[in-house]
């Protein structure tokens, strides 16, 4: 059985992978946009969209779920108080991504992610 096996991996241990997802999502919620590599963008976009969907439900269970997944107080407050109100009527697709080209140092594909 394939329990808890992610589709997109970045070649790190699971704890580092989870911390990276949490930190990128928290930065996205606080700043509204981030610039990252394509591989990292692939793992943070679905994670952040799930968190936004959870925040639209105004109950204690969804708040606890967000707390356990995100684990960042400032980002949680902004997500629950501001972002969830903004996307209340929207059925999905909360994040837009732009391809920026290649990074100069190592030719990594760069993507800008922003909340719509």
Protein described:
The chain is of the alpha+beta class and 116 residues long. The chain contains 4 helices and 3 strands, in the order αβαααββ. Strands 1-3-2 form a 3-stranded antiparallel beta sheet. The longest helix is centred in the middle third of the chain and has 19 residues, at 38-56. The mean pLDDT is 90.
Give a nutshell description of this structure:
The chain has 116 residues and is of the alpha+beta class. Helices cover 53% and strands 17% of the residues. Strands 1-3-2 form a three-stranded antiparallel sheet.
Q: Which labels suit this protein?
A:
globular; alpha+beta; 4 helices; 116 residues; 17% strand
Order of helices and strands: HEHHHEE
For the biggest sheet, the summary is: 3 strands, antiparallel
The separation of the N and C termini measures: 37 Å
- Spatial strand sequence of the major β-sheet: 1-3-2
SS content category: alpha+beta
**pLDDT averaged residue by residue:** 90
Strand content: 15-25%
* Total of helices: 4
Percent of residues in helices comes to 40-55%
Number of beta strands: 3
Please give the radius of gyration in angstroms.
15 Å
- List low-confidence stretches: none
